[in-house]
Specification:
- This protein has 423 residues and is an alpha/beta fold.
- The protein is 53% helix and 10% strand.
- The protein binds iron/sulfur cluster (2 copies).
- One iron/sulfur cluster binds next to loops.
């Protein structure tokens, strides 16, 4: 990635600290990813993207900015990409998934903040991630208390716009979210200097729907007995989907899905027959958080699906494409986004229904419910998740972890015992 040094300098990055990050990433990726056998050929695209992670997409974004386009950085799957795309803007995900950025976040946040928030703040303040430097505006949301307060701190350093998400899902809440989407659209128009029209928004809705459908195809390939792709590889595809151009993302996911369908037809698999099938539920796993997948898939099991924002919550449910007024389109967007079931809502029975449905659809042997340390929302909801799964006779293991490796051996012991217990 050395070719990008001048670009990083121009972005005002701390090159020395950034070098340290660039040195550890290839080894981590090699150990976790390249050690796998018989991977789908199409994964070559995602391997390449990771090898150039701080270079290739950032340079595309900078090129777009030179042509007058604006980049919006987001942290949550409730923020509608469609609105930004309709104004010819670009969306990039900004959730931090590395322990490398956590100490930077702890300089300004309590240690008892979830690692995702600490890493996201640290990546900006320590100037070690190009995506955080490039974004013209950050878009936050009021999903959890840690994020709400973190936005105030980030807002001192970068323009921030906050979307006020409802806490319940009554009809009036869905209408309120539609109004928030309309207000966001006005801000996006002002930032980009481009008007959002019905036609442009419908085009954007179609683009993002196509991306969702393509990702759903990749996930569907692991519903059957044959497993043509590892959970690790599928997770990588999902993590990078937050950063990539949506049309290219759809194209690459469809290419991967074609190969997986072919592999399934021929019985080509990456795990031996009878490997235990695990559904992961819980807090998101932002790139490069591959820890749990790696432990599970080197402990005799396979992750066949994630009920997470880095999983089904990202692509399930489409936005209706037939609306003819902006008002109706914002309402259609709101209806789709409010079908997401994050633990920040109460009651959140839809998430329990999702987990039980996915456990059945993916024919799982057990569920591992994951909580990022200090995420009080998912931690508390773990009680309801575990109870519902036990009532349904589905084995469940609840775990809490962070971005460090200090608990890796302890997790391995617990996960191996769980897999063994599955029979
Ligand atoms: S877990 Fe909730 S707050 Fe976090 S990205 Fe997902 S929807 Fe947003
Ligand atoms: S994992 Fe929990 S605490 Fe962390 S950002 Fe998401 S909802 Fe907030």
């Amino acid at each position: 990635m050395s070719d990008y040094v001048q670009m990083w300098k121009d972005l005002g990055m701390d090159l020395e600290t950034h070098d340290a990050l660039c040195q550890v990433l290839p080894t981590a990726f090699g150990d976790v990813y390249l050690s796998q056998e018989n991977r789908p050929e199409a994964m070559g695209f995602w391997d390449f993207v990771v090898s150039e992670i701080h270079g290739i997409r950032p340079s595309e974004l900078i090129e777009a900015q030179k042509n007058g386009r604006k980049v919006f950085g987001t942290f949550c799957v409730y923020v509608p990409d469609e609105v930004v795309i309709a104004a010819d803007g670009i969306v990039t995900g900004l959730c931090g998934g590395s322990q490398f950025w956590v100490p930077g976040g702890e300089k300004v946040l309590p240690k008892s903040t979830c690692p995702l928030i600490k890493a996201s703040v640290g990546a900006r303040l320590d100037r070690t991630c190009p995506f955080f430097r490039i974004a013209d505006m950050y878009v936050g949301e009021t999903t959890c208390d840690g994020k709400k307060k973190a936005w105030e701190i980030l807002g001192e350093d970068v323009p921030m716009y906050i979307m006020d998400i409802p806490q319940m899902k009554r009809e009036k809440d869905i209408e309120k979210w539609a109004q928030e989407i309309a207000a966001f659209a006005a801000v996006v128009e002002e930032q980009t200097g481009n008007k959002i029209t019905v036609e442009k928004l419908n085009d954007a809705i179609r683009i993002i729907n196509e991306k969702r459908k393509a990702m759903a195809r990749v996930f569907a390939a692991t519903k059957g007995k044959n497993l043509p792709i590892s959970g690790k590889d599928r997770l990588l595809m999902t993590q990078i989907a937050f950063f990539d151009d949506p049309a290219r993302c759809a194209q690459m996911c469809n290419k991967l899905a074609d190969e997986l369908d072919e592999r399934n037809a021929k019985g080509v698999r990456v795990f031996p027959a009878g490997t235990k099938r695990i559904l992961l539920s819980g807090t998101p796993l932002a790139i490069p958080n591959w820890k749990l997948h790696h432990i599970i898939e080197t402990s005799g099991a396979a992750v066949v699906c994630e009920e997470m924002c880095t999983g089904t919550r990202y692509f399930e449910n489409l936005v209706e494409e037939d609306k003819t007024t902006l008002e109706d389109q914002y309402m259609a967007l709101s209806r789709r986004y409010m079908k997401n079931n994050c633990a920040c809502f109460t009651p959140n029975t839809g998430r329990i229904d999702d987990i039980l449905r996915l456990a059945k659809e993916y024919e799982v042997d057990g569920v591992i419910d994951v909580n990022l340390k200090f995420c009080c929302l998912y931690d508390t909801e773990g009680y309801t998740v575990e109870k519902a799964l036990k009532d349904a006779g589905i084995p469940v293991l609840g775990i809490e972890t962070d971005y460090t490796d200090t608990d890796a051996e302890q997790l391995r012991t617990r996960i191996e015992a769980f897999v063994e217990m599955l029979g």
